[in-house]
Design goal:
Length: 223
């Protein structure tokens, strides 16, 4: 049940000029599912949504944020000092894992930019519960310096691709080029998170490959 909670700012970590990790204390009575997000009132009557990138097993609430828009939300976060009170409303969102994960042979995750947030939470959670299925993650950034570290688990395949540089260490091109890396088992689930254009393009292509729409879970916002 979504409610208002009080949290406190802990720290931020700079991944690159455009990508930061923000950490907040986790209220003792706050419970969430991996994939959910919170809403923060950044100035009076104006709220911004931030996906939780930490798992429920972790001490702090972590959010992956693309700061490049430099809007009111970004400015609010960048001006926070350690110990500042940060009220938030949540948890929100329905892009969560199924309760019967043992019946799902594979999870296919496709994201761009800070859309990695909920999938970082997924991966940390799946490692903790020792999920035995296969996880396929296609993760796109404009530049390799923007990649957020994803903890490896024994059964995960991570395909990182960059779109605005040529790299020998990563795949090159948009995520749609690599959808053949996914598992199209009839019981597999597909999750998409990132900018709206990418999300809808991947959604349509998955349907063309025979994936039923009820097996595709998508989140159209990203910070």
């Amino acid at each position: 049940m979504a409610s208002i909670y009080n949290s406190f700012f802990v720290k931020k970590i700079k991944i690159s000029d455009t990508t930061h990790l923000f950490y907040f204390t986790k209220p003792k009575d706050f419970e969430f599912d991996p994939g959910q997000y919170v809403s923060i009132e950044v100035i009076e009557h104006i709220k911004r949504s931030y996906s939780i990138s930490s798992s429920p097993f972790e001490k702090y609430l972590e959010c992956v944020v693309d700061i490049s828009p430099m809007g009111v939300g970004t400015q609010y976060l960048l001006n926070l000092k350690k110990g500042d009170l940060v009220p938030f409303f949540g948890p929100l969102g329905f892009m969560i894992l199924p309760k019967d994960l043992n019946q799902v042979p594979s999870l296919n995750l496709v994201c761009s930019g800070s859309g990695i947030g909920p999938f970082k939470s997924f991966c940390n959670y799946l490692r903790n519960i020792k999920y035995k299925g296969i996880v396929n993650l296609i993760y796109s950034e404009k530049y390799s310096k923007d990649f957020v570290k994803i903890e490896k688990i024994p059964n995960i395949n991570i395909y990182k691709t960059v779109t605005r540089e040529i790299s020998e260490n990563y795949l090159n091109g948009r995520v749609i080029k690599f959808l053949d890396k996914l598992d199209y088992n009839k019981k597999s689930l597909f999750y998409i998170c990132g900018n709206m254009d990418m999300l809808m393009e991947v959604f349509v292509l998955l349907q063309q490959k025979g994936v039923d729409s009820d097996r595709i879970i998508k989140e159209s916002f990203y910070s």
